[in-house]
Sequence to fold (148 residues):
Amino acid sequence: MFKQIAFVLLGCVPLAAQTTQPLRKVQRNVIISASDPAARIQVPPSAHYVGADRWILYEIADCELHAFVEADSQKNVQRLYWVQFEGYVPSRPELHHTYDSPTHTNIGGLDFYVDTWVRSMESRARPGSDGEHIQALIRARDSICQRA
Fold:
């Protein structure tokens, strides 16, 4: 069960590339983004890197997510650090996300949504969603995590 979730959605800007390889690099517990936006995101040293995924989210955005977890001795996820970069696809300029968050933060002059939530382990993620992708990443790392 997830006890805490740190979710960061970074930059909704047009991206030209439509490849599936992540653009950002990870070194130990730091995600390094050279652009869109340029950033270094550090999670606690106790978090284990689960991996990254990149795909086109709902035909709207080029989405790249990175996941780190802290698990207990039974491999139950105690904390999830979910960092997500998105950029609208240039081929569909009429499409945009329609969600908002009441809480925002400013980092380096850029505006970011700040969201947290709790859900039951039995709930299913929407097919093709970022939630489905993060769950698949975590489930694939059974050496660290038992379930997600």
Remarks:
- Helices lie at 130-140.
- The first helix runs from residue 130 to 140.
- The mean pLDDT is 81.
